[in-house]
TrEMBL record:
Keyword flag Protein transport: no
Residues spanning the signal sequence: none
Gene3D superfamilies the UniProt entry points to: 1.20.1260.10
Main location, first listed in the record: other
Species of provenance: Niallia endozanthoxylica
One GO term of the biological process aspect: sporulation resulting in formation of a cellular spore
Protein name (record): Spore coat protein
Magnesium keyword on record: no
Length: 103
């Protein structure tokens, strides 16, 4: 997103964080769904294919997780810092919603 649009919407650097968070949640959902599908499969060929997909999904999750930690978007070992990041994201979302309601 270009800088002018980011400034107009009040999103600034939040855009990358929002996208990464959404991607991380989707990756977690994919891991859960694939694990469930493996337990429901009756043929070895399908099970093996799903296991490979599961391993790929776990690898993807790890990459997103590391990206978020490196960027300071996610603090799994520091609850206070994570709370601060989450509160800031919440405030940005509220400000954006209020700005859109007034328009």
């Amino acid at each position: 997103m270009n800088q002018m649009i980011q400034n107009m919407t009040g999103m600034g650097g939040m855009t990358d964080q929002v996208i990464a968070t959404d991607f991380l949640i989707a990756a977690k959902t994919g891991v859960k769904n694939l694990a469930l599908a493996i337990t429901e499969t009756s043929t070895p060929e399908v099970r093996d294919t799903l296991k490979q997909y599961l391993n790929d999904a776990i690898d993807t999750h790890e990459q997103i997780f590391k990206y978020m930690v490196d960027k300071g978007y996610y603090h799994p070992n520091n609850l206070g810092e994570q709370l601060s990041v989450d509160l800031q994201a919440s405030q940005t979302a509220l400000n954006l919603a209020q700005g859109n309601a007034q328009s």
